[in-house]
Amino acid sequence: MYGITIRLKKPMIACIIAGGVAGIYSGFVSLKAYVFATPSIASIAQFVSKDNSSNFINALITGAIAIVVAFVATLIIGFDDPVEEEEEYDDTVETVGNTVLSQDGTSNTTNSIILTPIEGKAVALSQVNDPTFSEEIMGKGAAIIPSKGRVVSPVNGTISALFKTKHAIGLISDDGAEILIHIGLDTVKLDGKYFTAHVKKDERVKVGDLLVEFDMEAIKAAGYDIITPVIVTNTNDYKDVFSIIDKDVKEKDELIKTIK
């Protein structure tokens, strides 16, 4: 019920219709349940009576009516697949220079291609245990579960912010994308411990330049989650922001594309 019918709506309508039709039949034949049982296949036994064998047969017929009517009603009404909130990178588009070509041959200018700043596994922001990131309050992007304790520049651009605690870095790409790399969750409380910065605010960087190193094992041992959101904080400036997720990535692999 909660995983399919309520979420998808149309199957719920089909189930309501089927329940109504089956209910009419059960009322017409005076179907009786002799005990209360939680709905399941096994609870069909609640309709068994040694004095009224037809009651169990009518229970089976009622169940069959509900199944058949629900099936037919779903075919008629339709069944829409859910639309995922997290926009994934579409690997059917081709990038040529600074242009994204779709399958129908149309093109859109891509304002930025943001590469992977940390080696690890790229996952959806919804997997980050912090609503600021998982609910995309700060913007769209992806998260990385690090396998190596270093952050490199994902773009050619400028360091716009380097927190005193070194757990977060802000960049502005030459194409205008504003990027936040937040190493771990609540790691601001470490006050810079286990982090080493290799750049300064306002410094020019190019793709692959080392920005920060961090001791993954020490941070985890201190009780912190090291999952690292990579956010496009000016998401509203773009028509679409696509992210690669559920994939192992290396430094400088494509991670995010922004399209005007």
Question: How do you describe this structure in short?
Answer:
The protein is of the alpha+beta class. The strands form three sheets. The chain has an eight-stranded antiparallel sheet, with no helix packed on it.
User: In which range does the helix fraction lie?
Assistant: 10-25%
* Spatial extent as radius of gyration: 27 Å
Instruction: Tell me, briefly, the overall form.
Output: elongated
Mean pLDDT: 85
The class by helix and strand makeup works out as alpha+beta
State the end-to-end distance.
40 Å
The percentage of residues in β strands lies in 25-35%
Specify the number of helices: 5
Query: How would you characterize the largest beta sheet?
Result: 8 strands, antiparallel
Question: What is the total tally of β strands?
Answer: 16
Q: Provide the low-confidence segments as ranges.
A: 83-107
Helix-strand pattern: HHHEEEEHEEEEEEEEHEEEE
Major sheet: order of its strands?
11-7-8-9-13-5-4-15
List keywords for this structure.
about 260 residues, alpha+beta, 5 helices, elongated
